[in-house]
Amino acid sequence: MSYMPNYNDDDSNSSQNNEEDSSGAESEEEDIPTALSDLKLASVPDSLKGIRACLRCGLLKTGEQFLSDGCDNCPFLDLHQNADMIHKCTTVFFDGTVAVMDPRESWTAKWLRIDSYMPGVYAISITGQFPKDMEEDLEAAGRRWRCKPSK
Predict the structure, then answer these.
(1) Could you tell me if 122 and 54 are in contact, meaning their C-beta atoms sit under 8 angstroms apart?
(2) What topology does CATH give the domain 51-140?
(3) Each residue's pLDDT tens digit in the chain (151 positions)?
(4) Residue 48 carries which DSSP code?
(5) What are the residues facing 54 on neighbouring strands?
(6) pTM of the entire structure?
(7) Which of 122-147 are b and which e, b meaning 16 or more Cβ less than 10 Å from the residue's Cβ?
(8) Helix or strand holding residue 135 (H, E)
(9) Domain-by-domain residue ranges, the chain?
(10) Which of 50, 54, 56, 65 could cross-link to 145 by cystine, CB 3.0-4.6 Å?
């Protein structure tokens, strides 16, 4: 329902229509969902030093953030409070960054194939490789990853 202004010269009629329009507009505003209201946001890097990229999704955080929070998109990698897994599943070798606020609507997120992930800061390309056993586990679970082995 769109708002159509009343251009009548009759004051009594226009005040009645304005009351109806304003009450209709209020209920309409309540029904309109905001694009980001239902999305949880991933934490963004809090420093430019020590930024690492998740090998699977490309989410950028500092090593300390991965240690304290894990990866927001990949909880199954078990990075939270696990320095060994952070070393295996993240890398400092990445190119470019992109901040994505609404992955479902962003053409960049679709192009990078991160449109199903949380809003956050991502690497454009990631160089690295999971250990072979982890690659097999991810493949068996049907989970794709974004990193490419170095040449």
Answers:
(1) no
(2) Herpes Virus-1 (3.30.40)
(3) 443 434 344 444 444 444 444 444 444 444 434 544 555 777 778 888 899 999 999 999 999 999 999 999 999 999 999 999 999 999 999 999 999 999 999 999 999 999 999 999 999 999 999 999 999 999 999 999 999 998 7
(4) S
(5) 90
(6) 0.71
(7) bbeebbbbbeeebeeebeeeeeebbb
(8) helix 132-140
(9) 51-140
(10) 56
